[in-house]
Write a structure and sequence with these properties.
- The protein has 3 helices and 9 strands, in the order E-E-E-H-E-H-E-H-E-E-E-E.
- It has 190 residues and is of the alpha/beta class.
- The protein has one domain: ATPase, nucleotide binding domain (Nucleotidyltransferase, domain 5, 2-Layer Sandwich), CATH 3.30.420.40.
- The strands form 2 sheets. The protein has a 5-stranded mixed beta sheet. Strands 8-7-6-9 form a 4-stranded mixed beta sheet.
- The longest helix has 18 residues.
- 39% of the residues are buried.
Amino acid sequence: MILCLSTSSPEVSLAIVREGEVVAHARRRAARGSGGVLLSLLEKALQDAGSAMESIQLFVADTGPGGFTGVRVGVALAKAWAWSLGRPCAGVSAFDLIAPDRTVAVPIRRGLYVVRQPGEEPYRAERPPTTAIGYGADFETESHPDAAHCRHLLHLIQPVPAHRLLPAYHAAPSISAPKTPFGPPGGPRA
């Protein structure tokens, strides 16, 4: 069995795939706390599939692009589960979990999208093309990555050891240094 999970967008999803068929699927809006939402969805999905984590032979994570923290959470969980059970893991792009054969736009920060047209390298844009599907402020109808689409992508998945699975952010994180740095351990703050 394969466990596929997507945490790169505000909608978290997971799917358990057995012999090319989705045997359990769940999705929920989770603007924050995607890890906790994913864990609660997983418990029910395993029950619905009549299975346990030990039955999962491959862990597949949405590697992005998308929200920095969400992508990180999904990849870290897939790696941890794969490592703890001695199983391989794999990555699949958020673009493919939305629609592998369509132009897809995914927001990576306020006012910036990554766009992928089928067969081409992704590029950055301030606005998605009018023919694109995806999610974000510029979409009236949103399409989020859905882990259940993993069943159509099995031919693309390349299993790797857990330590080799990496996120594909397409942008550096938008973090800054603290205004008041901490001083040495046990000493006063500067």
